[in-house]
From TrEMBL:
Entry similarity comment: Belongs to the TRAFAC class TrmE-Era-EngA-EngB-Septin-like GTPase superfamily. Era GTPase family.
Region (G1): 9-16
Shown residues in whole-protein numbering: 12 to 177 of 307
Annotated source species: Heyndrickxia camelliae
Name of this protein: GTPase Era
Keyword Cytoplasm recorded: yes
Length: 166
């Protein structure tokens, strides 16, 4: 099994940290300049059963100018072509307009989407339940997986779930 995976989410939610943990190298940092690279392969994670190709998808945010508008279209088209989208949020931050904007874009895409709730090391377990309830009411996520990319909590579980969708 082999497939393309796009990790999207607001800045600083932990996308690069997660990739660095999975791939085991500091390669995601290299493509951290927003909007300068398009659909770049950030890393490939290979197991005996599967190959996961992580794709950088910059530009999923509210466009501020015409070029941003074009980048947005490119990004949305990429989301239609990948096998799986990981929408990452920061558990320690409330639902913001940036998140709502992304969810709105996801509604026009048939690709399966996971909600990845990152930074769970920064919240009380009770808070997690209300975050899940809130996001569940906004979009039909295929899986909802809480992780700590920094500490490694549940990141193996996320990889297992990703494999099922390739
Ligand atoms: P990106 O902009 O989405 O790629 O976010 P980064 O991966 O650059 O992470 C932004 C900041 O959040 C960095 O300081 C990370 O160390 C921190 N961070 C990422 N994941 C976690 C996590 O699971 N827990 C905590 N406490 N901090 C995290
Ligand atoms: Mg990053």
């Amino acid at each position: 099994k082999s497939g393309f995976i796009s990790i999207i989410g607001r800045p600083n939610v932990g996308k690069s940290t997660y990739l660095n943990r999975v791939i085991g190298q500091k390669i995601a940092i290299m493509s951290d300049k927003p909007q300068t690279t398009r659909n770049k392969v950030q890393g490939v994670y290979t197991t005996n059963e599967a190959q996961m190709i992580f794709i950088d998808t910059p530009g999923i945010h509210k466009p501020k100018h015409k070029l941003g508008d074009f980048m947005m279209k490119v990004a949305t088209n990429t989301l239609k072509e990948v096998d799986l989208i990981l929408f990452m949020i920061n558990a320690a931050e409330g639902l913001g307009r940036g998140d709502e904007f992304i969810i709105d874009k996801l509604k026009g895409v048939k690709t399966p989407v996971f909600l990845v709730i990152n930074k769970i090391d920064q919240i009380h377990p009770d808070e997690l339940l209300s975050i899940i309830e809130q996001y569940k009411s906004l979009f039909d996520f295929k899986e909802i997986i809480p992780i700590s990319a920094l500490q490694g909590n549940n990141t193996e579980k996320l990889l297992e779930e990703i494999q099922k969708y390739l």
